[in-house]
């Protein structure tokens, strides 16, 4: 009997230490720094860069945030986007910025709706950068060599979704340039493609 109790305790001990030792990457759960990979430390129960060491592992990799559950689906969310360069790779998607369109609420930069003939885009949350690119122009270049200059009027929300404000749509990926029909037309790309690779830069 004593042996059985000992075995039970040994198994319990082994399981708790094993599960407690799962190593987390950026934004993963943790209770102390031993739970975090590499040089990451545990802040507010999440693994992240150590401000004292000054590493920027998590910033450079743009780790996902807490997933958003919409009904039975779970979606990845991001508060960051890949770094912006002279030619940043993105996915162009199609958005209807007009009233009653699939864009949901009025564009957040100017609180206005926009006709499909206007050269306007929404950028993923990280690139929208807390409104810093509001009403600025970007140049979008397609693989067919065509390019177009369009104005940033909204955020393609990579953190929230599935609600009325976002017209029931899931959160945006973090590498999206969500363009009006005019943007697609100017680039000479068939809107039925839905998602195409582009590069963008500040105009
Ligand atoms: C984006 O730029 C890269 C590097 O300049 C290039 O290799 C790639 O083909 C470009 N993509 C598109 C869609 O134009």
Question: Which features does this protein show?
Answer:
signal; Barwin-like endoglucanases; binds 2-acetamido-2-deoxy-beta-D-glucopyranose; alpha+beta; Kiwellin-like; 203 residues; secreted; RlpA-like_sf; 28% strand
What does this structure look like?
- There is one protein chain.
- It is globular and about 55 Å long.
- About 6% of the residues have low confidence.
- A hairpin with a 2-residue loop joins strand 1 and strand 2.
- 17% of the residues lie in helices and 28% in strands.
- It has two domains: 41 residues, no CATH class; 115 residues, Barwin-like endoglucanases.
- The chain contains four helices and ten strands, in the order αββαββββαβββαβ.
- It is of the alpha+beta class and 203 residues long.
- The strands form three sheets. The protein has a six-stranded mixed barrel with strand order 5-9-6-8-7-10. A two-stranded antiparallel ribbon has the order 1-2.
- 2-acetamido-2-deoxy-beta-D-glucopyranose binds next to strand 7 and strand 10.
């Amino acid at each position: 009997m004593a042996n059985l109790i000992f075995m039970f305790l040994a198994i319990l001990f082994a399981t708790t230490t094993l599960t407690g030792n799962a190593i987390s990457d950026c934004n993963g759960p943790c209770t102390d720094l031993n739970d975090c990979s590499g040089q990451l430390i545990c802040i507010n129960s999440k693994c992240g860069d150590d401000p004292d060491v000054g590493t920027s592992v998590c910033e450079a990799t743009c780790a996902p945030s807490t997933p958003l559950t919409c009904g039975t689906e779970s979606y990845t969310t991001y508060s960051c986007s890949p770094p912006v360069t002279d030619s940043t790779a993105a996915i162009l998607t199609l958005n209807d910025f007009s009233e009653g369109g699939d864009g949901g609420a009025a564009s957040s930069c100017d609180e206005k709706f926009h006709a499909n003939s206007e050269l306007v885009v929404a950028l993923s949350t990280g690139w929208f950068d807390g409104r810093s690119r509001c009403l600025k122009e970007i140049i979008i270049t397609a693989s067919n060599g065509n390019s177009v200059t369009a104005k940033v009027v909204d955020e393609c929300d990579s953190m929230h979704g599935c609600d009325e404000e976002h017209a029931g749509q899931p959160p945006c990926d973090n590498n999206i340039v969500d363009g009006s029909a005019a943007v697609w037309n100017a680039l000479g790309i068939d809107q039925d493609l839905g998602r195409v690779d582009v590069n963008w830069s500040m105009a």
